[in-house]
Amino acid sequence: MRFTADDYLEICVMDELNGRFADAAALFASELSRRVAILALDTSGGIYTVPFAEYINVIEDNLRRLTANGYYPQGMEAPKTWAGEDGDMKFLDYRDVNRWFESVRLVEEMTRGIAGRLLRTGTFASGSGRTRQVVRAA
């Protein structure tokens, strides 16, 4: 998804982000056995706008959760913390929405790359970092 200055930040965009975050967390779990707790955005009936910094910060926090512990893909822009109203130096715009979707794409791409380098030989993991080898039990 790519957005322009003529687009609106609608609830369907938030629903799409919810799904993308859940997919990325599921990819981590299936490919790397890494559990990531994603915070769900409340897009239930009756909510028609996204006016609050707290709501936007849930998105930024989910990006931090996905990239915690060294899983930060090269080229990804850092998540922000929004203060709301006049507390922000720059206001939320379409570039931030594009950054969210691009960040999730980069995290998913990185996860698949790590999984491709994982050597499966048993049930125990040795070493640390993103590249690891699984070794057999005695």
Write the layout of secondary structure elements.
Blueprint (H helix, E strand, L loop, with lengths): L10 H22 L20 H14 L27 H24 L1 E2 L3 E3 L6 E3 L3
Parallel strand pairs: 1-3
Antiparallel strand pairs: 2-3
Helix pairs in contact: 1-2, 1-3, 2-3
Plain-language structure description:
By secondary structure, the protein is mainly α. Helices cover about 45% and strands about 5% of the residues. It contains three helices and three strands; from the N terminus they run H-H-H-E-E-E. It has helices at about 10-30, 55-65, 95-115, and strands at about 120, 125, 135. A three-stranded mixed sheet has the order 1-3-2, with no helix packed on it. The longest helix has 24 residues, at about 95-115.
Structural class: mainly alpha
- Cα-atom radius of gyration: 17 Å
Q: Could you give the order of strands across the largest sheet?
A: 1-3-2
> Could you say which overall geometry the principal axes of the C-alpha atoms support?
globular
**Tell me about the biggest sheet?**
3 strands, mixed
Order of helices and strands: HHHEEE
Low-confidence stretches: none
Oligomerization state of this entry? single chain
Query: How many angstroms does the end-to-end distance come to?
Result: 49 Å
